[in-house]
Amino acid sequence: MIIAVTGGKGGTGKTTVALSLALTWRKPVTYIDADVETPNAAILLGTEMERIGAAYKSIPVIDEEKCIKCGLCAHACPVAALVFIPGKVPLFIEENCVGCMLCKDVCPVGAIREEKKEIGIIREGEHEHITLYDGLLDPTEEEAAPLVEELLRRALNDAKGDVIIDTAAGIHCNVARAIMPADKVIIVTEPTPYGVHDLEKIVKLVETLEKPYEIYANKWGINGACQKRIEEIAREKGVKLTKIQFSEDFARKYAKGAFEPVIQ
Amino acid sequence: MIITVASGKGGAGKTTVTASIAHVLPKDKTYLLDADVDTPNLALALGLEKPEKKEEWWGGVVSEFVGNEPHPEACPFGAIGLDGTVNELLCEGCGACAKRFPESYRLKNVHTADILWYSWNGVPLLTAELMPGRSGSGKIVTELRMRAEKEMAEKGRDVLLIDAAAGRGCPVIASLRGSDYAIIVVDNTPTGIEDALQVLNVVEHFSIPFGYVINRADIVPERVEKIEEIFGKRRGGEKLGEIPYIQDVLKTYPPPFERVLEYINVEEILKKI
Fold it and tell me: Per the CB < 8 Å rule, is A10 touching B166?
């Protein structure tokens, strides 16, 4: 069974719920922290992580000696990563490049070669019965998609028992990527106006992906009106709602770096 | 003057800090931009329910399988299946497939986001709502920035305050690029500090001067000095405040901006503009 834990808004408790599930899981479990921009599970568990792989993108390297300055590569580039100024070797703007290598294919003199550039690393660590995987996007990289893809591929391939996937915040394509392999989704929300507002968005994404889901409402007890709205949404959608009481004690322990499961 | 508020970690207090600062900026000069297009909450924090104007943005493109011959190998993002069809949620709209196999693939524009205009006590607030699962939040932020800067030039406004998204990827980079000043909200938790450091790397990459606000400072008071050491002494940021753990921020709506402002060095921020 593969469970994805997501939430829309940041800071509602996605990682808290996902880690609580993993820590109280009865069997060995694989945990994938798919938030490669700001991975937090290893920090909370204090797990020592080891590099086991990397994700790469292809980039073109132009041989300036061979280049006949025809501009065909720049013309072929779908994302304006190569800029042609007549009489000059095309200028490469790496941040625009998606790595399709169409430029290489159209070059009439074979002046372009493909180079693999590392965009981030994949790590693995062990904590009790949990095998933890995460990714670290290179500080200069903008596009996380290939790293998320490679992390999921690698971890799901290695996984033996059940899997818990902890997604990034938001409702964008990399959240969708992390939800896609799941059999079931847990949406973590909080009873604040923001939490409720963002809950409706993430529900829409999960429904688009046609995944069965449950709602976990974290920090229960802080706002009656918002709690009522969350109960209404769960009822309307006909999904299970699990409430986790707000605990200042938990917040303080979390801040100190001592993580304790919030659910059994 | 462009000021961007970022934090890396979600729920660190970006929107609360942004909305608080908005209260002290000159109303006739300021323009607000909520760049968290996945889950925009600045308007909500400022008590605004309905936008004054809404426009569908069809700026994003995705590929469509229009031929007979499937070419999954043409996609650098693995969005094309073995049967040739395109998974729109995985397609980044780069157009590599359409350029390579124009008989099989064609790009089409899609409804990527709704752009929303609000007005808060006469201060314009621009944001967008991403359609679930779409890619390109960075492009949307760049589009919002262009529109905001154009409107600011027309209306004689010169202070742009941006509330960035969580994380440190495309939309955050699109918010920080070209900013004159960054305010990093550091949530006083191990993960809050780590994620703020990720954002700081981007801020330094663009050589943007920055300040930092420590949120929930009193929850582990003994760590405040360490945060000052890292973000101040070592990385050169100026400390703009130390907000205690105010439970009312979570419990009351709208948030108690006056109380939050007591802990932010407003004079220092006003000096920038």
Answer: yes
